Batch of 3 targets.
Target 1
Amino acid sequence: MNLTEHTKIRKEKFGTVLFDTLTEKIFVTDEIGGEILQLVEQGKDLSQMVSELCETFDGEGQIIEKDVLEFTEQLKSDNIISG
């Protein structure tokens, strides 16, 4: 997975702001969404993301994997990430 060329990201105190320069839409995520986006920027695959998020947030792997899949599918449908 990768961010699309037209997506800009900015980390804020309250979370992460995404700006789609093609549609001029703004998306806001919380801390966990920001962590997922950072892992996407680093080129991590799903299993790597889940592993790192389990360590960071001390969560159950199956639940985190489900949440990551839902979040990334939404980002794909909004044309924020590809792959």
Note: The first strand starts at residue 2 and ends at 3.
Target 2
Amino acid sequence: MTHTPIQRRRPTTLKDIASEIGMSVSTVSRALADNPAISQDTRDTVREAAQRLRYRPNNQAASLRKQRTNIIGVAIPDIENPFFATLASAIQQSARAKGFSILLGNTEENPELLAKSIEMFANQRVDGMIVVPHDEAQEIFEDAVDEGIPIVAVDRRLSIPTVPSVVSDPKPGFAAAMDALLQNPNATIGFLAGPQDTSTGLERFKVMQQLAHDRGVELHIEHGGYNQRDGYAGTVAMIEAGVNAIIGGDAMLTMGAIQALCERNITVGRDCAVVGFDELPMFLYHNPPLSTIDQQVSLMGKEAFELLEEMLSGQHVPASKVLPTIMHDRGSTTLA
């Protein structure tokens, strides 16, 4: 006689409750924890749904989370991008000074690879994560929050209220760059914009549009990914359109711009003015030294680790830390 195997009911998760009542996972989590920031009506709604769906907290997972490994996961989109390499190094230095090791995930701006990195970190029972997120990988972060893993977003924001972020404010640097270029009466300004499916790419694009509007300036914009290839192609298009003053949207886009100009024997600081993004040593060795917009990347990494450390010790942390960008005006902003 054969027996039909008993099908075990999958445990209800915070995500199930959130989907049932149309709220975010973070709101559900805070409501069940009786967070006073959540209204009583919302808490009652969440608890009723949790009871109806027979939700049981994963106490075993919570217990495991309390056992420290002194390892943190760090996910960055491109290890070949000097900005992200410097960011990871700054996080590692801060972590090492406090007795932590890091696991590094290079996600190549690929949401699936980012999700695999987050899963790998969770399986290795890291104490927490510092990540450069991607808008298309929101769900995997909600799962990690559901599991009680502390997360800090760096360079880009996540739309999860319980995940704090350390980011830069591009406006001060871009404003100073545009004003420096406009000192040239014949300047026609172009902007190499980053990907619009990242918070940084979208924010920098909107800031540049607003700055140009406020100054009554027509702005030529070329969109691309954060890579040298798209910076090169965008610069070629700008040259053909008569642009003679370029602002890069990130380090790799800036490197592509320099390559395109050099190949065409267009002299920076004479035939074309250029302001790069990110303060990289290689930009200082260019002739003339490149004017740059500095995100204070080392400080960004240090602040991100300190936020995570505060979360691990149970302290209340701010929703975000915003570092002002600084424009370093050198010899590349002039036109003959």
Note: The chain has a mean pLDDT of 90.
Target 3
Amino acid sequence: MKIEKVRCVLLSSSYADADDPEIKECFPNGPKRTIGMVEITLENGVTGLGEGYIAVFAPLVFQSIVDLCRPYAEGRDGFDIERRVRDLRSVCDYWSLQGAARHVISAFEIALQDAKAKTLGVPVYELLGGAKAESIQIYGSGGCCDAKAQFRREMDLLNDKGITLYKIRSVKKDILRTAWVLDEAAARGIQVGVDMCQNLADPPQSVEDVVAFVGGVHALTANRMIFVEEAIGPDAPECFKALRKAIDVPVYGGEIITTPKEMINRLTDGVYDAVQPDASVIGGIGAVMEIFEAARPCGVRVVVHAWGGAAAIMASYHAAFAAGGDLVEFPMLDFPLGAEMIGDQARIVDGRLYRPTAPGLGITLTREMEARYPFDDTAVYSCMLHDWGPPPDSYWTKD
């Protein structure tokens, strides 16, 4: 089944709200976010969509690499997905063996999986051996909050969905804040993990910083963090290993890793208790399946990362269903474009994500939707963080 056309799609949608700390810190032009997709049209007229996470940060870079890759995909067999990925790697690996091009290759691979599954009339996970369960436990991913009311609003949403696991964002100085959240959540039957956001820190914190943070928080509450994520900078695997020996909290990481080889090397070397591959970053759905396969004999948990748009999220979910994953991420910040594209294909009931049933990824994009969410080149995530003046940690001791 030949690929008739490749199209780059850049769209922007409102995101979260202006008072959200992630907006104040990372979105200098306000609460709006961009996603970038590859749309592949097969000769039978069926289209598939895939996403590269890089477009959230650098949409025009994404577009340029898609344009470069287009001639090496059009006119070729769209059902031979592995071969198409090898072709794109031949185009890109010399100058981007890791990094930007891997996000774009991810988008092509996901789009091909979507188009093939839609042609065959089955969900993508059926191409990968079928879903291993009807549902998977899901955790709420939010906690970019600098006010108690914001946290309580997110916990209300978790309670409404029956979700009992919650990931928040904290840095080493947030000791009182984190202890307050652990106690507030526990009163609602919710356990808390902590993303320490060191992928965005330069220089990142040390192992000693994390040990002091965990000890400081746990000294204030009987409730315990269920994991720490990205607690060390991404280029220091030896420090992750040292951290695992120094604390009794599981250590998660790896969402920005762009090749299966690097993630597999890390998990076999004991760097993490759990790895967090993202299909829109690491090379597509097939790449995430490789991670699950390699992690199993090592006793390392795989918890897919899901923080992009609809195609990125659903691609990681399909991989988790096909590979027997036991936990996935629910991004809690409001993103109307993503919600509209997913529709009813990511149902959460009693804290569990139920497998999608529609053909392909289960997402929808129409030209009418595209017209309502036009690309805004100012709607980009900036990793040059802005210090917006969050409240002092002492705020969290007040009633």
Note: The mean pLDDT is 97.
